[in-house]
Amino acid sequence: MKKFNNLIILAPLAYAIHHYEEHIIFNFREWRLKYFLDNNHIPTEAVLCILISVLLLAVFFQLISRSRATAHILLFFLMATQVVNAAFHIFFSLYYSDFSPGTITAILLYLPINFLIIQSAFREGLLKNSTELITIFILGISTFALFEWIGPKVWLVSFFMCFIYYFWMRKVLPSKI
């Protein structure tokens, strides 16, 4: 279970459980509206369907291609939707002294699962150095922040950019992917 392609299957499960905590056990949207703009009018069920579908597609493409390019895209998606999301829940729970629904699964699932995924990516050569990880992390932070500020349109641009990145990686580094 320590292989990258085995561990990535845990990410959609973690996301589903996290969503359950945010919207079934607690009411994240109500909490969020106390502190942030309402720039996302898509129902939470639609957000779940969209993001879990994209995540499953990224996992599927990685399982088929087993390439660095698809691994980077998957890691970017996990950074933006899980790692930075975990930091968001933890930071703003402390900042506002008000429990952010989603913090429990962010700490117990998102962080450990993504740590194992990243560790295996390094071990298997899918990530070559910390610069690649930091770059993917910065892109994840930027995407998450822009999503919070602008709304869902950010994901369309990100999705398109992932396609460009994939084909660029295949062309520039075909023997090393």
UniProtKB/TrEMBL annotation:
The keyword Transferase does not apply. Keywords: Membrane, Transmembrane, Transmembrane helix. The keyword Transmembrane applies. The chain crosses the membrane at residues 40-61, 73-96, 102-118, 130-147, 153-169. This is HXXEE domain-containing protein. It comes from marine metagenome.
